[in-house]
Amino acid sequence: MGSIFRDTFWNVPVWAQAVHYLLSIATLLILSYGIYRRVSLWRQGQKTKVSLPVKKRVKAFLLYAIAQVRLLRDRYPGIMHLFIFWGMVVLFLGTATVTLDYDVAHLIFRTRFLTDGFYLVFKLTLDILGTLLIVGVLLAAYRRYVLRPSRLDNLWQDAYQLGMLFAIGLMGFLLEAMRLAAFKQPEVAIWSPVGYLLAQPFWGVTKETIRPYYVGTWFVHSTMALVFIASLPYTKLWHIVASPTNIFFRSLRPAGELLPIENLEEQETFGVGKFEEFTWKQRLDFDACTRCGRCQDACPAWASGTPLSPKKLILELQQCMLEKPTLDAKSQKPCSKDLHGKVVAADELWACTTCRACVQECPVFIEHVEAIVDMRRYLTLSEGAVPATTATTLKQMTSQGNPWGLSKNDRLKWTEGLDVKVIAPSQEVEYLYWVGCSAAYDARNQKVAKAMVRVLKAAGVDFAILGNQEKCCGDSARRLGEEYLFQTLAVENIDNLKKYRFQKIVTACPHGYNTLKNEYPQFGGNYTVIHHTELLAQLVQEGRLGLSKPFYKNITYHDSCYLGRYNDVFQAPRQVLAALPGALLKEMARSRDRGFCCGGGGGQMWMEAKVEKRVNHIRLEDALAVKPDCVGTACPFCLTMFVDAAKVKGIEDSLPVKDVVELIAEALV
Amino acid sequence: MNVVVCVKQVPDTTAEKRLDANLRLDRASVDNIINPFDEYAIEEGLRLQEAHGGEVTLLCMGTESAQETLRKGLAMGADRGVLVTDPALAGSDAWATSYVLAQALKRMSYDVILCGMQTTDSGTAQVPGGVAEFLGLPQLTWANKVEISDGKATIQRQSDAGYDVVEAPLPVVISVIKGINEPRYPSLKGIMQARRKELQIWSLGDLGISQGMVGVLGAKTKVLGYSRPAPRAKGQLIQENSQAAATMIADFLAQAKVL
Question: Considering the domain boundaries, does residue A8 fall inside one?
Answer without folding.
Answer: no
